[in-house]
Design goal:
This protein is of the alpha/beta class. It folds into 2 domains: about 240 residues, Glycogen Phosphorylase B (Rossmann fold); about 180 residues, 3-Layer(aba) Sandwich (Rossmann fold). It is about 35% helix and about 20% strand. The strands form 3 sheets. A 9-stranded mixed beta sheet has the order 3-4-5-2-1-6-7-11-12. Strands 15-14-13-16-17-18 form a 6-stranded parallel beta sheet, with helices on both faces.
Length: about 450
């Protein structure tokens, strides 16, 4: 089976968030399971490929010229780098001021048209789309191949003006939303299968509270929508083989103390014995960073320290810097994303704090548990599917706040810190989290089953 997997991000070439991580992990696991995957990614930075072959792509005039370079990249495997007008940018989505590029609708609309042409050129049996950046592709496909759409984040939908309708050869009525078009909403109505990135998220998005205006369209698809939990790329996230942190495993948890000391050395702290709460996050409201920063005033009373690595909103970054300046022995903050440092935080931390307001799946909680760092999370999305509260479940792996607010987060932190200070309980929690298979093998198997249904002509 040949699958064209279209995504706006693919780690390590380009990864602004979880989409790039998920795309890399899933495509690698699909190949291991025997699926022939060609990954289509915008050619943002003219990356070099091995065995490169050029392809001219037949697209509408407004999207032309369009082409692809098909070859292989050392870090990604088989790949098609797609070039359309305006796609080459230093950042895929935002300019230097942090504002979205003004022509994002045209850039990703052209990419979607090119993906449709590419699917014919490579003879795809299934076209697997991801998020709004590829969601216009069904309008150009003309039933060449069945389609799957994975929803990684319903918060970004690809709204554009109604002038777009005349550019769409098919499904105009599906993409029309009042006086606008909604790329993601239209695709939800017409693709053959819809995947959400966790089972709980699949139930949230069909409700008015979680559907962000698309709940009715999603609910109408019935069994065509299913939740498949993301995995993590265990080639990258494995404490036994990590190149960026001291190595250890669940049979030698004393080795985690070495990683803790390495983390303390990195941030310039002496070891007071206080637990280390870590966060690797985007600095946005969705991630509940403000809830974490509000809770920082209780750190001294909790006898804990907070280490934060993240980038995003200027307001939250300024708040993080202020906390680090006002509580230098309690808070360490680094603005930006640094992959080696993120590995060190997961390896050396005692507790991961992830107080998201909504979280389609989340990767950090799984990465943390793989490294024996105990998660504190809110009761949303994939966090519910991956973290069992140790005060309510004998097989618990972390702590789940009862409410998504400051009081809920502080209470869950208190409970986690009590567990961390109890040596036997901490070890039991760590070993349970580290023993679970967080890889993409299981999720990939479920995705292959979806492909198989479509190949057999199962109804929408």
């Amino acid at each position: 089976m040949r699958v064209l997997f279209a995504t706006a991000e693919l780690r390590p070439l380009v990864s602004a968030g979880g989409l790039g991580e998920a795309a890399a992990g899933l495509t690698a696991a699909l190949r291991e399971s025997g699926v022939e995957v060609v990954t289509a990614v915008p050619d943002y930075q003219r990356w070099t490929l091995d065995g490169e072959e050029p392809l001219e792509l037949a697209v509408p005039d407004w999207a032309a010229p369009a082409s692809a370079r098909v070859g292989s990249h050392l870090d990604t495997g088989p790949i098609a780098l797609v070039d359309v007008p305006g796609i080459e940018r230093s950042d895929p989505y935002v300019d230097g001021s942090g504002e979205g590029w003004a022509d994002n609708d045209l850039r990703f609309g052209a990419f979607s048209a090119a993906v449709s042409a590419l699917s014919r050129a490579v003879g795809a049996d299934v076209v697997h789309l991801n998020d709004w950046h590829t969601a216009l592709a069904p309008a150009f496909l003309a039933d060449d191949a069945p389609t799957v759409l994975t929803i990684h984040n319903l918060g970004h939908q690809g709204w554009a003006g109604s002038h777009w309708l005349h550019r769409l050869p098919r499904h105009r009525e599906a993409y029309a939303w009042g006086d606008s078009i909604n790329a993601l909403g239209g695709a939800i109505r017409v693709v053959d299968r819809l995947l959400a990135v966790s089972p709980h998220y699949a139930t949230e998005i069909i409700t008015p509270e979680g559907g962000m205006g698309l709940d009715e369209a999603l609910a109408s698809r019935g069994a065509a929508l299913r939740g498949i939990l993301n995995g993590i790329d265990t080639r990258v996230w494995d404490p036994r083989t990590d190149a960026h942190a001291p190595r250890f495993d669940s049979d030698d948890l004393e080795g985690k103390a070495v990683a803790r000391q390495a983390l303390l050395d990195h941030v310039g702290w002496t070891d007071t014995g206080d637990p280390l709460i870590v966060m690797v996050t985007r600095l946005v409201e969705q991630k509940g960073v403000d809830l974490a920063f509000e809770a920082a005033r209780f750190l001294e009373g909790m006898r804990a320290r907070l280490i934060v690595l993240g980038s995003g909103e200027a307001r939250l970054a300024a708040w993080g810097r202020w906390l680090a300046e006002s509580q230098p022995e309690r808070v360490w903050f680094h603005e930006g994303y640094d992959a080696p440092v993120s590995h060190l935080l997961f390896a050396g931390g005692d507790v991961l704090l992830m107080p998201s307001r909504f979280e389609p799946c989340g990767l950090a909680q799984m990465q943390a548990m793989a490294y024996g760092t105990i998660p504190v999370v809110t009761p949303v999305g994939g966090l519910v599917d991956t973290v069992a509260d140790a005060d309510r479940d004998a097989a618990g792996t972390g702590f789940v706040a009862t409410t998504t607010d400051e009081s809920g987060v502080v209470d869950a932190l208190h409970r986690a810190l009590r567990a961390v200070r109890h040596h036997g309980r901490r070890r039991a929690l760590q070993r349970r989290g580290m023993s679970r298979d967080w890889s993409w093998r299981g999720p990939a198997k479920q995705v292959v089953e979806v492909y198989g249904e479509l190949a057999k002509g199962s109804p929408r």
